[in-house]
Amino acid sequence: MYPRTTAPTDRTTETSGRAKRIFSGSAWGILAKTLDALAKFVTIPMLVGFYGRADYGLIALAFSLNAYLRLMDLGFNVGAVRYFSMWTASGEWSKIGDVSRSSIVFYGIIGLVNAFIFLGMSAYGQQLFNLTEAQVPFYRQIMYILACSTVLNWLSSVVIQLLSAKDELGYVNRVTVISSVLNFLVALLAIQMQWALITYFIYYTLSTLVPIPFYIARLRVFPVARKSLLTPRWHGQAFKEILTYSLAIFVMGLFQLTANNLRPLLLGKFADGTEVLTDYRVIQTIAMLIVAFGGVFMQVLLPSASKAYAEGNQERIARMIFEATKYISVFLGFMVFVLILNAEDILLLYMGEGYGHLSLWLSIWLLTVLLSMHNTPVASLVLSTGRTRFLVYSSAVACIVSLPITVIFAGTLQVGAAVVGYLVYMVLQIGFFYVYYIPKVLHLDGRRLFARAFLPAAIGGGLALLVSQYITTKLVFPDGYGTVIANTIIFTLVYGLYLLVFVVKPADIRQLKKTLMEKGKGNA
């Protein structure tokens, strides 16, 4: 047995340290996601121009397939982070070791099953999707590459879960930056050296595997040997505790992943050709920047929410959820409305002529993401409670209602069918949270949370957008980047003034400065 240590008794020090870790993990996560989004933002139009819309659509299809098969996680990622965080706080290293080694077995099996699915799908490309004869060999080779890499990707999940529980997300996100840089370099080399599509995809896949050795090396932060965490060995009794919780998350995740990641696959089946998948990938890359930031907040907040819920301090929980919702809404509101303001110009600069018509669908997708991501703190706390049965029901209803919309309108709206389907899904999901989970499970004031934490930032963003559009029509700016820069500066000034007057109090600014200064001293 490993020694059992005691959590610190000084609540003030613990809370301060937790705030710093949340800030560090969020800051590095945002930086990593920003760099990754910028890399995609620069390389996708280059790759589409080099390989063509139809052939690049094959890569977009591969990404969608890979994302959808993540449902085989069975919700275990969320459950593992929750329990690893609680056991880390109580120093139950023996239990962590047993479950971690069982997880290696579990994810290894999932990876092998995943690989066989890709191999099986490689033989039925034309039956599953609207592929031309010339595209079939490329599709088949892409499936082979995914089959070879999927096991390592699944196994790395265990290491990331452990590091998340140990508040090492700052390190994880720093390493992610390396992968983003490599992805960017691979794309540049592919174009410069005129690689075949498959050669590019091989090197891209290898670049995504580079962070894994760095993650494993960081496990030294645990007071136990790495082999006791990663050597495959099944401990059924210890593993069962997480699996029971995770299965409910899996059923919920099944519907969420189906609603989110089946949409491009349905476009590939019911829309006109694989070109629509390139359109989808273009606006997805921009919208996913906001989704990625929300994912960073979820990733960072889940361990802290689990610990806060375990302590049972309702007043502290309510304050944490309100403040987190307010500042996430402020930050993401700025990002969303800046992108909407510049949507058409960005698409023209990003992809060139012929893509400006996507600005409407991009704007709707961005607003949907803002609605979804403001709920991140609440979702983190709900997952921490373990009371997820109603989430299963709400996800199922929203999925069943929204997916037919994509199928019905794919032929007429094309990529817009997926966007409208996603909007319907998310409105239903957020509605369920405010009607049931927030008042009845979390015992929080949903009306106050929505009206005072989310709406002020959203309304401010909308007003700043209208004011900025009015001002820019009265002034003359250089086309292209000049217009985007001018729009962004004007919006930032108007939005910032609104926040200072109506949303952010002087005490909030002083507290933020204090946190930043303490963080800086801690890193000195």
UniProtKB/TrEMBL annotation:
Name of a matching Pfam family: Polysacc_synt_3
Keyword Methyltransferase recorded: no
Keyword vocabulary terms for this entry: Cell membrane, Membrane, Transmembrane, Transmembrane helix
Cellular compartments annotated: Cell membrane
Protein topology in the membrane: Multi-pass membrane protein
GO cellular component: plasma membrane
Transmembrane regions listed in the UniProt entry: 104-124, 144-163, 175-195, 201-221, 242-262, 282-303, 324-343, 363-383, 390-413, 419-437, 449-472, 484-504
PANTHER family listed in its UniProt record: PSMA PROTEIN, PST FAMILY PREDICTED COLANIC ACID TRANSPORTER
Stated name of the protein: Membrane protein involved in the export of O-antigen and teichoic acid
